[in-house]
Every structure is written in structure tokens, then in C-alpha cells.
Amino acid sequence: MPSLQLPRYSPTLLPVKETSTSSSHKLSGSTIRPIEFNLVIESPPLICYGSRTQSTGALLSGLLFLYVNAYTIPMKSVTLELVQEVTVKRPSIGACKDCIHHVNILKRWDLLKHHTTLPRSEYGYPFSHLLHGDLPASTTASLAGVSYYLRATATPLAKDVAPITLTRALPVYRSIITTDVRRCLRVFPPTALNVTASLPAVAFPKSTFTMDLQLNNIINKDKRTRWQLRKFSWRLDEITRLKHTGCDKHPDSPQQLEDVRTIAFNDVRKGWKTDFSNDGRIETEVEISTLDDVPMSCNVLAPEFGFEVEHMLVVEMLVSEEHIPPNGSHQSTPTGAARILRMQFSVEITERGGLGISWDDEVPPTYDDVPISPPGYDHIVPTRDIEHLVM
């Protein structure tokens, strides 16, 4: 098989912790591992730009290094696998290991298929794979979690040497890059009140964003009454849904789970502006902050596993009705009527995009992008005659 000879202690090599218990050979009176692994990821962070239907995925590339420390080792196989694992945190009663951990091998590389005796040396195996854009991002939610990792396995032919296994986590992110602003309208019959809300289309974890609220038609000229805003509150909820169907051995134990956690909340009792001209309106600006030390996940949708994470912004405005005071008077009389205006807005929580360049946009320059070449030598300018110097 082709091998790539590389320096043993090259500065580009990154230390990777081995996760298996491997046996050891005693060579020359010292205990050393006969086989060692190292893994180098050459591609940038795995970020799928856009939604599940629009993303072109993320490109993964790297090098797997196999170090043979013994003089010669007969090898049975060397494999590398890209694994997706979905872990259920609240399994049903009687669930087995396969019900809790759903493992899906996305890609497998058989680096060594036949029995081969490897001499003492260093071997490098390049690998690359395009992760599909509809894959769910890595997350750790209250009901389940999604993770990706690379798993390399070297199986020696000798029975007294256990297989060597190395795993390395691969975080997969999703980023939706947009500067659009969502504008929503909520009406509250039988009153004429309506609320106009403006908020960004996407938000980021551990950040702040602003929402503008405008309460319209607060004056009823026929009844000579008006509505006053007493207070309003907001909270950001993280909703996790899981439809767990179990493994092939336990298909008759499906369960539907839902968990709601409050990420952030606040009560506001002042700071808005009231305008009683025409039909009247109340304007306010709310700062939604998720900077507290509360763990939160980004939006995730994995219909193949029945797993979903979404975020909902709930706003409640407490208004009371009062009689319009006569001209020249500032004393208003309450009518005793009050209402709670409750609204919900879905919030797309996504990772920051960084440079925001997808792998398919990083194309090499074409011939049209090459600048104009220097002028040619078709036109030769004659030089002046030089006098011969006579000594």
C-alpha cells in the first residue's frame, strides 16, 4: 500500500489522546507501545452555512499517522471511520445500550485491507470527506445530544496485542448569515389593540439583541377611554422535543418527550414612550440578553432521529383601561378593566459565521482573473551609436 514518510516529531503534528487500553511489548528491557496513532485535521472548522435545505455542507480533510515502534508487526487491518452518535439522556425503562446510543457511520476508510507486515517506520494516510448540509449540528440538549468523531483502529495479527483505537471529537456547527429584520404584527380582539414587533432574523448564543415594540390604537374615542402600559416582561425558552423509538430489539417502546427551559427573563416597569395623539401609541425598546451562565443550545432539527431544539421568545404586556381626563386635567380615572397581551416569537439561535465563506466559494482563480501581462518586445527602439574608444 502507498505510504508517506514524514518526520516523527514534525512541528505540525498535534498531540492526540489515545482512548483505548492497549497492551504493551517489552523491547530491549523497556515498556513501549508497539503501535501509536496521531491525527491532524487540516481543514478549517466544520461549519455548514445556511439552512438544512440550502447548505452545501462542510469539507473535512486531514492526515492519519501510524507509528510502528516495534521492528516488524504483522497487521491485520487499519481503518478510519467518521461516526455520528445521538445519545438519549432520558431513555425508557428497560432500554439497552443501543437504545441510548444511536451510532451511524457516515464514512469508512479501509487503509489496510490485507494482512501486511509493517516494518518500523512512520506512515501517513490522507483522508477527506464532504459532510452533507442537512446533518444536524453538534449539540448537548436536555433530552439528547448529537456528536461527531473520528475513530481510527489498528488491529495487529498477533493475539497478544490488543487493537489500538484512537478517537477525536469533530464539532460540527451551523451558521445562518443574514442581516434581515423580522417584522411581526399581533392583534388582540375584541379590542382594537395591536402590537408591531421588530427583531433580528437570527441571534447568537451568549449575546444580546434588540427588539422594538409598538402598541397601537390605545385610544377609544367613542368611549373616551385609553389603555396604559403598566409593565411588561419577556423570557426566552428553549424547547427540546424527542420522539424516541428505541433500537431494533425494543421497537415497541416509543415515547414522546418535551422539555422547556427558561434561558433568560426580565421584567420592565419603565422606559417606554407614550403618544396620545390621533389613535395613540406606546413605543419601547427591549434588550434581550443571553449572557447569563445558563447553558444553551443552538436550533437543531433532526427529523430522522425525532430530535428538535427550538427557541421561543414570550412577551407579556400588562395594560389597564382608564377614562380620558377632561381638558386641563391630568387626573385619570381607571375603569377597572385590564388585559395581559401575550405574544410568542420564534428565535433562530445559530453559531457565528466567522469569515462566512463556504467551501464551494473558495475556488482558485480562473484565467480571466489573471492580470494583463507585461508588454512584448515586438517594437525595438534603436540605441544611439557609441564611439569607439581608441587607446
Explain what you see:
This protein is mainly β. The protein folds into two domains: 25-175, Immunoglobulin-like (Sandwich), CATH 2.60.40; 181-349, Immunoglobulin-like (Sandwich). The protein is 1% helix and 53% strand. The protein contains one helix and 25 strands. It has one helix spanning 97-100, and strands at residues 25-27, 30-32, 35-41, 46-49, 58-68, 72-88, 101-112, 116-119, 122-131, 139-140, 144-156, 164-169, 172-175, 181-187, 194-200, 202-203, 208-216, 219-220, 225-244, 255-268, 273-275, 281-289, 300-302, 307-323, 333-349. The strands form six sheets. Strands 16, 18, 19, 20, 23, 24 and 25 form a seven-stranded mixed β-sheet that branches. Strands 6, 7, 8, 10, 11 and 12 form a six-stranded antiparallel β-sheet that branches. It has a five-stranded antiparallel β-sheet with strand order 14-15-17-22-21, with no helix packed on it. Strand 21 and strand 22 form a beta hairpin. The chain is flat, with a radius of gyration of 33 Å. GO terms for molecular function: protein-macromolecule adaptor activity; ubiquitin protein ligase binding. Residues 78-252 form the LDB19 N-terminal domain. Pfam families: LDB19 (PF13002).
